[in-house]
Amino acid sequence: MASSSSRLKDTIFSTQIVDCHTHIIPWNDLPQPVTGYTLFNRSGCLRGIWAIAGALSRQEFRQFKQFPDWPSLSAALEQVKAVAYYRILLSGLKSLYMLDFEELDEISLEALGKKMADAYKSPHWYSTVLKEKAGFDITCQDSRGEFDRSLFTPVTRMDGYALFGKRGWGDAIIAKHGGDRTSSLEGLVGCLGQDFHEALKDGAAAVKSNLCWGRTLSFDLVGTAAAADALAVCNSDENDEKSAKVLGDYMMNEIAKLCAAHDIPLQIHTGPAGGTDHMVEFGNPLNLNPLILRNPETKFILFHAGGPFVRESAALATQFPNVFLDLCGVLGRDSLRRILDDWLEFVPHTKIMWGTDVNMVEEAYAISRSFREVLFELLEARVKSGYISYSVAEDVAKAILAGNAKRVLRLES
Ligand SMILES: [Zn+2]
Q: How far is the CA of 168 from the centre of ligand 1 (A)?
């Protein structure tokens, strides 16, 4: 028994992972020296928790206010010290930088800063952390910007088209393609197709959508004439919410069709948006039901386990063969374990993926280490209860850590 258990642990800790979703800040974009302050200030996960804890006001959150010294940072850390994400991060930092402290204080932060500043002098530090220490095979970066393509696989966004009728959202598209083309529906759809092909040529592995940050995930069936009328209204009145939604519904359907035609999955942010001022209900994955039903050939990947709508996202994954689940951004330990434990009972394990959703490589390391532990604990418990054998547990682990993502996103090592 013990040897099978340690073999399972070995498998889980040695499998090369696919991280389906992240936002790592390019090494070049971090001002040297990189220290502990850089890490904590640049962590979107921590900043989000600080915003909801009140350690950053709405204004400070939007303006990226930095904590410049220990008194200000420690006051902010005080509010998040029991949150799972902070515990996971601390544990990862101690392991990665071989530091020994119980809780972070001014002295340990300085020691961390020295080690980080040294490590970051090397342009290979990202490769060392992601490839060697965290054991990542492929990292899908939610961007097509300037970054090391030997470490990161790009993912593209087309949300500008689905939000085209909303003030400001179409600006980049109009600037690129010209107002003449984007003023007619046919022209706008043509621009979308062109951008889509450019993204594919650039190696994009998926289309990521963040639409529920600005609108509901409910997309009605809209005919061409109604969409053209809505575009005309939006062109003359940027504040017409109703027409913006009609146009957005139509364009999202076009995006889903393009994804199917090119066999590229549509990764959809579900659950609450980041920040402090959004409608949680917008991100309820059940809103996607009609869009999924209309696009049976499109692979929909529901991100963040659906947020509070865990069961709802699982309900879609058990209803539709073209719906998959991604645990990216679920930054807990026991809560994550409960979600996965629950899903494994009725969602085929071949439909579940994982990702980090972080900004710094230290965070990616910490999250992946914690996820491997959680996965081992729950699968070992399932084996010990007689529910599955060790060999099935190993297959499930390998599929969730890498195999499913490689198959669904058509990724190669
Ligand atoms: Zn994200």
A: 21
Ligand 1: centre distance to CA 269 (Å): 8
Residues listed for the chain: 413
CATH superfamily of 133-408: Metal-dependent hydrolases (3.20.20.140)
The residue among 246, 252, 250, 244 whose CA lies nearest residue 165 is 244
Tens digits of residue pLDDT in 137-169: 999 999 988 889 999 999 999 999 999 999 899
CB-based contact 228:252 (threshold 8 Å): no
CA dihedral 163, 167, 170, 175 (to 10 degrees): -170
Token pair of 332, please?
């807990």
Query: Whose structure tokens read 């592995």?
Result: 205
C-beta of residue 234 within 8 angstroms of C-beta of residue 243? yes
pTM, two decimals, is: 0.96
Give distance in angstroms: CA of 217 to centre of ligand 1.
17
In this predicted structure, the answer to whether residue 277 has a pLDDT above a threshold of 80 is no
Give the separation between CA 311 and CA 320, rounded to whole angstroms: 14
- The closest of 301, 288, 398, 403 to 21, measured between CA atoms, is 301
Q: How far is the CA of 208 from the centre of ligand 1 (A)?
A: 9
**CB distance 189 to 197 below 8 Å:** no
For 28, 82, 195, 201, 219, the CA distances from 206, given in Å and listed in that order, are 25, 35, 13, 12, 20
Helix 361-384 / helix 334-346 crossing angle, nearest 10 deg = 50
Cis peptide before 33 (omega within 30 of 0): yes
